[in-house]
Amino acid sequence: MNPQSDRKMTMxxxxxxxxxxxxxxxxxxxxxxxxxxxxxxxxxxxxxxTIGNPLxxxxxxxxIDQDLNRSFDLNKNSNFGNYETKRANFLVNQFGDNGNYxxxxxxxxxxxxxxxGTSIVMYGRRSKDFCLAALLQNKFxxxxxxxxxxxxxxxxxxxxxxxxxxxxxxxxxxxxxxxxIIKRFLxxxxxxxxxxxxxxxxxxxxxxxxxxxxxxxxIDYPREKNGNIKGLIHPERINRDWQTIKxxxxxxxxxxxxxxxYEGEEKISPVFIGEASxxxxxxxxxxAKKEIIFSTIEWIEDFFVT
Amino acid sequence: MNPQSDRKMTMxxxxxxxxxxxxxxxxxxxxxxxxxxxxxxxxxxxxxxTIGNPLxxxxxxxxIDQDLNRSFDLNKNSNFGNYETKRANFLVNQFGDNGNYxxxxxxxxxxxxxxxGTSIVMYGRRSKDFCLAALLQNKFxxxxxxxxxxxxxxxxxxxxxxxxxxxxxxxxxxxxxxxxIIKRFLxxxxxxxxxxxxxxxxxxxxxxxxxxxxxxxxIDYPREKNGNIKGLIHPERINRDWQTIKxxxxxxxxxxxxxxxYEGEEKISPVFIGEASxxxxxxxxxxAKKEIIFSTIEWIEDFFVT
Lengths: 306, 306
Prior knowledge:
The structure is a homodimer of 306-residue chains.
Chain A lengths: L2 H9 L1 E6 L7 H12 L3 E2 L2 E7 L2 H6 L23 H13 L9 E7 L5 E7 L3 H14 L3 E4 L16 E7 L8 H22 L8 E11 L11 E3 L16 E5 L4 E3 L7 E3 L13 E10 L3 H6 L3
Parallel strand pairs in A: 1-3, 1-4, 4-7, 5-6, 6-8
Antiparallel strand pairs in A: 2-3, 5-7, 8-13, 9-10, 10-11, 12-13
Helix pairs in contact in A: 2-6
């Protein structure tokens, strides 16, 4: 095989991961349904489907030993014995760039209890990711959450692939099947497939620019000294993900009815507001700053470079 | 102490239980907030507040070993070593009719991921429960779910007290604080207090009748032979709790897009549609039949009999 044909062969294999968190069940259903409609090899694109965390799915838990979607710092990882570390290694050995069935795009499907709508999460500023994200945003106007420079939150699954996005849809309760949420995943999967085919056929035109929400950090609930939460997300803040706030806007309401306000100087957009599984991470919401990024032709060119 | 004063002393002690399921966190917050406003001894009524399942609350899980709210068959129970059995015994020893701090009303606060609104759940047809439920329905028009004659589902907490209701509010995700849900619990707690004070003052008038939804059974998801769910709640059914359905109305949608319909002869109202924690109980929804029950003066008279 010459390098050129090898490149093409690798390029078109897409890994679709659901159930990376075992209590996010709608993506698992959506992928099973998508797989029934779209054969594994569909024209120029080959799909690989996998359940990220099958044991956690079986038990209806987010994870067994640790969050799988923070377990892909494979070199840093010292917890070699635990289930998710083993599982992360297995997935990379199977489907990673040098794995048994090398995929060079990974799409990881998640749900949130927060009122985020359908959104795209990117980790860092990789050209290939920008290319796919720009095409999806152009089609649907989806918000893009660009996660970078947070030492507290590392080891995300898609970072272990040369190109990868998270699709995050909410609000939906954990372990609750919602046909509307499933439908939204199916639309995204079909569109991704269509956009990648257009890229292959060289008929893609990138939008001039894209809007991203740049991750600036996260804030915790107000807590007692013993760690108990002593303030709720304020009623004016709950369910208002992506909405820009300014100094003085309410964030929390404590048990005595006192409002705790945002004291930062810059305007910012809270996301993952009240996400149920982030309490243990000491995150009440994350804060993101709107930024415009202009497209470059390299995004498309890089997309074809392995 | 003469029997009369002893009766009065017992009558007015109300146990408010939250966190019977450890991942239903809004009632815990509501009760803490209610307790700050309403002192433990408030005119003629004494409140006792307790967390049903503190260890499960700490871990954000529904339960540790088994569902606490199915663990109050204290005589039948054979799992003496497990956490919830011990906890059920402790709660009855502390707050039961013959306990250290005898309460003769128990109000157990729950949330559901189903779109039930604010509702009252009664177990069996006890006069005292009817009395309280009728007063709340009269005030707010709340639906009453009357659970009886289900051998699969027994040992509910409030059954271990001479009078007791469950207040069930949804939809809300597990482990997600929602200030609107908390507000609804606070309204119910305040109203219960007001209604019980009116009963004490003998200024209560019962409504002529009340509407209950009588539990007729539960149905499971369609499943593969290996137990995997192979059909979702149908989009026309999801979030439509309490709505009456007839033969031929859709119930489930299987992965191939085939609709599975309701085949029963009688009109029925599904409730707890898609409740996340009931999948493990093989319940996709419960079915209830609307029934009118006429009030009797005995409901009030019995309310004062210990």
